Request: fold
Amino acid sequence: MNWLTRLFSRRRLYGDLSAEIEEHLSEKIDELVAGGMSRAEATRTARREFGNVTLLQERSREVWQWPRLESFVADLRFALRMLRKSPGFTAVAVLTLALGIGANTAIFSVADTLLLRSLPFHRPDQIALLQNALVQDSFPPHDTAKQFHEWARHSAYLADAALFEGVDVNLGGSRAVIRAHAAQTSWNFFSVLGVRPTLGRAFVRDDEVDAPGFGLPGRNAVAVIGYGLWQELFGGDPKALGATIQVDGNRLTIIGVAPRGFDYPDHCVLWKPAAFSQGNNGWVTIARLNPGISWSQARTAFAVEVAPRLPKPANTESPDLAPQLLSLQDGLLGPVKNATLLLLGAVLLVLLIACTNVANLLIARTADRRAELSIRAALGASRARLARQLLTECLLLSFVAAIAGLLAAYWTVPLAAIVEPPPLGVRSYSVLNGHVLAFTLAASVIAAMLFGLLPVLDIGNLHVLGPKPSATSRGSRVIRQAVVAAQVMLTMVLLSASVLVGHAFSHLMSTDRGYNVKGIATVSVSLDGTTYQSGDRQFPYFEEVLERVRRLPGVRSVSATEFLPLDAKGFIGGNFGIDGHPANRNSTIVPVFSDYFQTMGGQILYGREFNDAEVRSDAKVAVVNERFAAAFGVPSGAIGRRLTTEGESSRKIVGVVKGMDYETDPTLINSFQVFIPPTHPGIFPPATFVARVDAPAESHLFAIRDAIRSVDADVPVFSVKTMQQRLNELFAHPRFYEFIIWTFTGFALLLILVGTYGLLSYTVARRTSEIGIRMALGATRSNVGRMVLGEAFLTVCVGIIGGAPLIFWIKRLAGSLMGSAPGSLTAPIALGALAILAVALVAAYIPARRAMRVDPMVALRYE
Amino acid sequence: MSNRQPRDLFPGALEMMILRTLKRQPLHGYALAQHIKRASDDLLQIEEGSLYPALQRLLKEGCLKAEWGVSSTKRRVRIYKLTPAGAKHLERQVSSFEQMLEGITRVLAPVKS
Reply:
């Protein structure tokens, strides 16, 4: 008999089997009766000597089956029936788990894309980023092309190194000028990354020049364009090679097209060969490690190489900028890496809490199914068999939840791209990949084991002789209380993390940054490549724009600056001093027009800011911030003194201001700042106009933009935003983290509500008769209510006390998530404890009322 | 109540006894049980019912054939018969059992003396 015919003849086989066993028993009974026994006695004896008929029949049938598989299928079908039978329980459990698993899937898919996927370069694990901002003496040497390549060639630990400098440029050619990100790179940039152009060629050694600025013309005037730009401008036509494209007004010949998805660094759309010049400190260095050199060896070699070039005393103000050799992947991720790991931790906590909740529901259900389970045990099901049945139900629950969670994650994950754009070569975050699906599967199985464990252990209390709930319910009640306490503990951690993060975030948003964020409209322009590019035409353009904007209704004052606070991208600094005494560290130089502080709502402490006449005449005046002035005596005393710097004529200090935050890094905020009028000729091609307007600021943006355009429509106008919008964008990450953490916490609190409610209503239902007796013996309603509330209070307090130590540990993590030092711990602990207690008492209210309304007579009759 | 009673002395022993009994003559389940009990002088405590899973195993392996028939007491019963494959299987089992037994006896012998 092969397995197929066996499968089909099974029904007959089973029929034969039971008929045969029936015959066996009846023959035996007949024989015993013939031997003089009564029929009833004979039946009992026959059955005893035969053994457990049902079990033996099942054993016999199993011979013909794939027993594990078939009993699993049977379990599964039974589990489905059980879940359908209690739709309320199923819905709550599945929803709880689906949210937990879905959130985990979503966060994991982002983490997977950000942290685990390698960059689309050749052997990305060998590519290093040199963090060398604080190293002096232009390291690596980059004054000339030759110097740099010689250095790279002689390096013992690097196979090769490349330089690049990212710049925002005006891109013109076929259509309207657009603002785009470009980079000038050393010729070997593509080969160090191991990337080959899809079309045409990369740069060669001769494309590099030693010349100030952007270099050009001649061999240097070539470019590799990005795949997207190629599609956009040329429709993917190979004839693009040899065509020209205008970059800041310079004609570059296109020699290559980068592969699809390649946009390093920073969403770059165009690369041109480097022009080396003395004193350019905007270069970023990437390198490929020598094969056979380990990362730790390379790090040591790098540290040794930079050690003699470090400033003395060492700059301890910005430890994050300490010179080091990073893997490019880490370098690109920066703080996002820690944040992602932290969110992953938080979301795992959520899943754990969800599991405890479902475990709680399951324990109650298992207790209610005691009768059913006892019967099955009496019929010969072993404890392991019952455990398998229950675990199958758990797995089923978990899988249904995993599917729902996957769907939820599928729809929500792409939202993450708004805050954290996906890295190179990845178009968006998605849950549909092997890693993520495997993670979800593992998460759901582990979750099932976690929440299934306690109910299964609870089976141990089963008494085969029949349902005797009162004897065993105490044990499972203690388990359930412990589960709720654990839930409270975990939620405590999440909640205090949320409070910490929320606190840090509101601190971030409300910090006095030295200007009044409200009511400022900002619009940026770039004169590069326009008819105003030449030095002597820039100033008239700015004056014209300022004049037109000033005349707009609702505009109170207007000014312009090279770069806004918190946006020190084009950072320029210099070592300034007073009366020939240099300060002990560099100052940020901010060129601004007149009325700048008035417009920004800055604080002028002593003296005044520049006036129109000074700006127009390029007067040698300056405004310094309080910190700078304080380095040379009382701040007010700086007025009238000379601001000096090497190689430049001195300026008269006319004002001391509070200073503004030009850096987002809290450790760098409010360092030395020097404000000067724009120098003539050649002010600052990219600049931002700022206008203080009547509220709401948004409503004035377009009028201001149009006024600027009306001066010359060919000048690209971009970043039309209120200052508040800029701030929001800048802090989009912390805002997102705050939102997520609070969402998680809200969910956890909801689960506590459900968990406590479930625990107490279960206890009240179980103890109805006990409560009835108590009342009959004279307990008042408030005694009973207090008893129920007391149980909630006690359970929650145990959890809170247990969770408190964990909070100390979470404190540091939450701080690093928000990029600022966390506040004190007492507030989060107190707030967390209060919130949880409040939730627990709300949850206890209904069961307590139910307990108080117990009618002793009804309760006792019930028994 | 325990679910698993000692079915036989060692795995395969019950099967071996069934085959040996059926080698002499085809029997139905009840008769088979009685025969084994009697032959062992009730030394072996065998649950009668445990014959049936063993019979199903032997049927599945092709050592036995079963046919519905009528017993001497005029009952409709399923009569089991040894197949040639079953006979061969029995021979192998018995010889390996005897080998094992002999081995065990030798190991135990010195202790007894």
Observations:
- Residues 66-122+334-467 of chain A form one domain.
- The longest strand of chain A covers residues 158-172.
- The interface with chain B takes residues 1, 16-17, 19-21, 23-24, 26-28, 30, 49-53, 55-57, 59-64, 378, 380-382, 464 of chain A (CB under 8 Å).
